[in-house]
Amino acid sequence: MMGMPNHVSLKSWEASRRVVAGRLINCYSRKDMILSLMFQLKRMQGILRPVCGTSPVLVDGVENFDVTDLVSAHTDYCLVTGEILKRLRHGQPQKASISKTDVAAMVTTIKVANYGFTPLSDEAGPKK
Questions:
Q1: Which end of the chain is more exposed for a tag (fewer CB within 10 A), N or C?
Q2: How far apart are CA 65 and CA 106, in angstroms?
């Protein structure tokens, strides 16, 4: 999500995290004046929640990426999208978030679960 013009709703981000299989990234700029102005207007109306595009979202599994050095106005996103995607390493393999020990434990569990398993085939029947 780049410069998302919506209030931070932790429940919405948690729900999104449950259905997004890959990375869920909140790109924000503290200098985005359009979103900041929207935030100030909502603040005067008594709504004190921050806007996603101007601040990090503190939800497990959501990556926050500060693009303040690239984006000083909301319209800058269309000009720097390519650079943001490069910095995020979009489309490139990511380091696994699971440890080698966890993988070994899963493989061991699978082997134990499949112990004694006989694959079915035409040749598996008794020979005459």
A1: C
A2: 32
Q: Which two tokens stand for residue 105?
A: 């434990």
How large is the average pLDDT for residues 38-43?
Answer: 67
Q: With DSSP H G I counted as helix, E B as strand and the rest as coil, what are the percentages for the chain, rounded to 5?
A: 45, 10, 45
List, as own/partner pairs, every contact residues 42-51 make where C-beta atoms lie below 8 angstroms and the sequence separation is at least 24, other chains included. 42/7, 47/7, 49/7, 49/8, 49/9, 50/7, 50/8, 51/4, 51/5, 51/6, 51/7, 51/8
Q: What pLDDT is stored for residue 120 in this prediction?
A: 47
Q: At 27, is the secondary structure helix, strand, or coil? A: strand
pLDDT grade for 42, boundaries at 50, 70 and 90: low
Tokens representing 114 are 């499949």
